[in-house]
């Protein structure tokens, strides 16, 4: 149970770090791009990365 909580927290932290890196590297305002400008491509890329992180964490928990 403890390992599941640790990996869940790790997943959230990794997703937050990824969002910050996208903002810094590409000089984007992620919130503005997704909500105000409705940039579907960036939304799909961000969702894909979130799923990838989730799959990696799930595989780690199940192993």
TrEMBL record:
It is a multi-pass membrane protein. It comes from the Bacteria. Its main location: membrane. Keywords: Cell membrane, Membrane, Transmembrane, Transmembrane helix. It holds the Pfam family DUF350. The chain crosses the membrane at residues 6-26, 38-62. It is found in: Cell membrane. Belongs to the UPF0719 family. This is Sodium:proline symporter. The lineage of its organism: Bacteria, Bacillati, Actinomycetota, Actinomycetes, Actinomycetales.
């Amino acid at each position: 149970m403890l390992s599941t909580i640790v990996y869940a927290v790790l997943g959230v932290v990794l997703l937050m770090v990824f969002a910050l890196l996208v903002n810094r590297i590409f000089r984007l305002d992620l919130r503005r791009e997704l909500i105000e400008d409705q940039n579907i491509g960036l939304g799909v890329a961000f969702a894909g990365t979130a799923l990838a992180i989730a799959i990696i964490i799930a595989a780690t928990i199940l192993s």
